[in-house]
Amino acid sequence: MDAPIPFRPLPSRAPPRAATGPFAALRRHLFGTPGNAVTTLLLAALLWAALPPALGWLVGHAVWRADYAACRALEHTAACWGFVAEKWRLILFGRYPYLEQWRPLAATAIVVAALVVTAIPAFWRRELVWLWGAALAAFFVLMSGGIPGLAGVDTGLWGGLPLTVLLTLIGMGASIPIGILLALARRSDLPLLRAMATLYIELVRGVPLITVLFTASFVFPLLLPQGFHLDVLTRVALGIVLFQAAYMAEVVRGGLQALPKGQAEAAAALGLSWWRTQRQVILPQALTLVIPSFVNSLLSTFMDTSLVTVVSMYDLTGALRLALGDAQWRNFFLEGYLFVALIYFACCFAMSRYSHWLEHRLGRWTRR
Q1: Alpha-carbon distance 79 to 75, whole Å?
Q2: 8 Å CB contact between 154 and 223
Q3: What is the pTM for the complete model shown?
Q4: Residue (of 168, 98, 169, 110) closest to 134 by Cα position
Q5: Which stretch of DSSP H or E encloses residue 88?
Q6: Structure confidence at residue 2 (pLDDT)
Q7: C-alpha to C-alpha distance for 335 and 329, rounded to whole angstroms
Q8: Which of 64, 76, 233, 322 has its CA 20 to 30 A from that of 182?
C-alpha cells in the first residue's frame, strides 16, 4: 500500500488587482477593448480641437450685459448674452403684464416644489392628492387673479415657461387615467367596448397634434351650445389630453401584454374581483414595466407644447419669437434659442435621470 502524500499548502499569492474606483471604471468603460480605446482617443482629440473655440465663443469673449452697441461690435465672433439679459422676462413669461410677473414666477415655483415633493418616496401617501389640489389652486389663483389684491389677467395673456409647465402637467396628469381605461377597454372581452376603444386610439394616433390643436381652437367652439364658452387655453389643454391619452393607452397596453397570464390566474384563484385584480396585481406591475415609455411620452408632451403657437398661444418658444420681434435684437436669435434649449435640456435631463432611478427602485421584482 502506497504511503499517503503529505499535504503541503501552496504559498500565498498577491490579491487580484482592485476592479473598483475611478481608474478601474475608466479602464472598463473607455479602454476595455481596442475599439473602445480608439473611439475614446478620437473623441478626446475632437473635444480638444473644438472645445476651446466653443468656450471662447460662449463664455470667454461673450457680452453679458444688455449693451446693443457692444454686441453689434462683436459681429457674431462671440455670443451676445445681452439679448437674454434684455429679454429674459419676455421669454420666460410671455405677454403677461410686466408689473405682475412675480405671480407666474411664484405659481411656477409652487408647482415645481410640488413635483419635487412628489418625487420623494417618503411622501408617497394619499395626502399628495391634497397637496396637488392646493398647488394647482394656488397656480390658477395667482395666474388668473380676480380676487382682492390681484388684478385679473386673461388666459390669452398667459405664456412662457408657466404655460409650458401647465400644459405638460394637464396633458400627462389627465391622459394617464384615460389611457389606462382605454388600454383595459381595448383588451376587454366585450366586442363593442373593444371596438370603440380601438377605433378611438387608431383614429387619434393617425392625426398629427397640430390638426388636433386647430380643431380644438377653431372647430370645437362651433359645436358648443349657444351661450356656452370655453377659453382657448381650456380647449387646447383638452385637445392635448385627448391626443396624448391615445398614446398612453398603447404604452399601458404594452405593459399589460408583457405580464404572464399566471398573474391574473393567481389573483382569480385567490377570489379577487376583476377590478381588484387590475388595481392591486396587474396594473402596478404593468405600469412599472413601462416607466421608460411613460417618461418618453412626458418628454414628448413637454416639447410638443411649442406647437400651441399655431393657435396664437405663446409658450416658451413662442415667447422667444415675441422677443425676436424687436428689430434691434433680431440678429441675435442664436443666443435666444440656445437659452431656451438650455431650459428644455435641464428639465428633460432631470426627468430622464429621475426615471432611471425610479425604474431601478420599483423594478426590483423584475430582476429576481
Answers
A1: 9
A2: no
A3: 0.85
A4: 110
A5: helix 82-93
A6: 63
A7: 10
A8: 233
With a pLDDT cut of 70, the percent of the chain lying above it is 96
> How do the domains of the chain map onto residue ranges?
102-152, 160-367
C-alpha to C-alpha distances, 18 to 12, 230, 241, nearest whole angstrom: 17, 66, 53
Describe the crossing of helices 160-186 and 232-258 by its angle, rounded to 10 degrees: 40
User: Coil, helix or strand for 126?
Assistant: coil
- Residue 141: the pLDDT is 94
Centre a 10 Å sphere on the Cβ of residue 289 and count the other Cβ atoms it contains: 20
Beta-carbon contacts of 363 under 8 Å, excluding residues fewer than 6 positions away, are 288, 289, 291
pLDDT in tens, 204-250: 999 999 999 988 888 888 887 887 888 889 999 999 999 999 999 99
Quickly name the fold that domain 160-367 has: MetI-like fold (1.10.3720)
DSSP for residue 329: T
Cα–Cα distance measured from residue 267 to residue 185, given in angstroms and rounded to the nearest whole number: 20
The rounded distance, in Å, linking the Cα atoms of 139 and 150 is 13
Alpha helices in 145-260 (DSSP H): 160-186, 191-205, 209-214, 220-223, 232-258
